[in-house]
Amino acid sequence: MAGMKIGIAGAGSMAQYHCEGFTRAGAEVVAMADTDLDRARAFGEKRGITRVYADLSRMLSASPEIDAVSIVTPNKFHKPLALEALSRGKHVYCEKPPALNAREMGEMLEAALKAGKVLMFDFNNRARPESQAIMNYIRDGRVGTINSAQASWIRRNGIPGFGGWFTSKALSGGGPVIDLPHMLDLALYFMGFPEPDYLLGTAYYDFMGNKSFKGPWGIPDLAGGVTDVESACHAMVTFKTGQCLMIRSSWAEMNERELVSVTFQGTKAGGKVERLFGIDGLDETSVDNSRLFIEEYGNQVDLVPRTEMDQSMGRVASAANFVEAALGISKPLNTPGEALILMKIIDAMYESASSGKPVKTG
Ligand SMILES: NC(=O)c1ccc[n+]([C@@H]2O[C@H](COP(=O)([O-])OP(=O)(O)OC[C@H]3O[C@@H](n4cnc5c(N)ncnc54)[C@H](O)[C@@H]3O)[C@@H](O)[C@H]2O)c1
Questions:
Q1: Backbone region of residue 87 per phi and psi (left: phi > 0; alpha: psi in -120 to 50; beta: other values)
Q2: For ligand 1, is residue 75 a contact (CB within 6 Å)?
Q3: CA within 20 to 30 Å of 67's CA: 201, 222, 281, 310, which one?
Q4: pTM here?
């Protein structure tokens, strides 16, 4: 499939990174479909994509040579668009979260198996240089078994607007729990995607509607729109392997600054991958780093892998990996089976937060 051809559904903010990654891996973005045709045209004009359509069906009918579809729409449309693309024999690269819930994710997994096509998600944090540096140690057995880990994506004032699709449960599936699944995914990746056993979690709805807790990205508020999702959730999950994971997730909480990290404690080494955002998002005070904590010759030692800062947080590399996986020349950085485990944990977080009781997940 040399010269793979890709059509993008949804001109959302991540589409630029998809384009860059696909092109870097030698693929060509030939068409764009967005229900907002003006947005599709504006996106296409900047990148020489002349074929723009109002929906995926029209795009695939008009451009049957498309080999793969990438999906960059609000979360509610991930499943239907992925099912349509897979049923028409296309590989699919879909933005996170994979779907609204585990049931939908199960349908997507079945559809990918039936079509015999690659289905991957933009878990871009796995492709970050810091994450891959740590993963090399884990693969080589230098961390041992990860007993415990902590996955955090916490913000102080990072609500993505009020009343738009992000804050509508029907369109997004929920608040930060489903919007910021990257560190949960990265922790599971490091831990080897063990099977979850029990989960206990709580959710909070403070500051929703308070404009001083809104994020700085200029996402407009929608008057009359729905805001019915959580602002924070904290949970602990145990696994059938005996491992455990704490999850901290928030858009708005009284935290010092935005922290994006996975820390872990293994039988041979501990470690962390971290991004500290600057006060105004990604600025000169932002820090990306990774560390390994070991004991050597009677001393406690910190190893500091030196990696290039990737401003895209692995988004370009992740999209490039999709093309290579679809061509069969690289292993996919993530699989639908892993996405199903992630979605089961997310479902359990909402279930436990609502019932106030532990949830048996396995
Ligand atoms: N990987 C990351 O770090 C990251 C960061 C931000 C957003 N995202 C994800 O990207 C997705 C899009 O988020 P966004 O902030 O760019 O949203 P957005 O609202 O800015 O853009 C979504 C686009 O999809 C279009 N659209 C809606 N329904 C459609 C359909 N059925 N077919 C085709 N186009 C359709 C809209 O018109 C809009 O142009 C979400 O799933 C979000 O979670 C991922």
A1: alpha
A2: yes
A3: 310
A4: 0.97
User: Is there a contact between 175 and 229 (Cβ–Cβ < 8 Å)?
Assistant: yes
Domains and CATH numbers, the chain: 5-121 (3.40.50.720), 126-311+341-360 (3.30.360.10)
- Closest of 309, 173, 286 to residue 230, by C-alpha: 173
**d(CA 71, ligand 1 centre) in Å:** 8
Cβ of residue 79 lying under 6 Å from some atom of ligand 1: no
Please indicate whether residue 35, judged by its CB atom, sits closer than 6 Å to ligand 1.
Answer: yes
How far is the C-alpha of 273 from the C-alpha of 288, rounded, in Å? 8
Peptide bond into 97 cis (omega under 30): yes
Structure confidence by residue, pLDDT tens digits, 247-280:
999 999 999 889 999 999 999 999 999 988 776 6
Output the CA 74–ligand 1 centroid distance in Å: 4
* Residue type at position 325: A
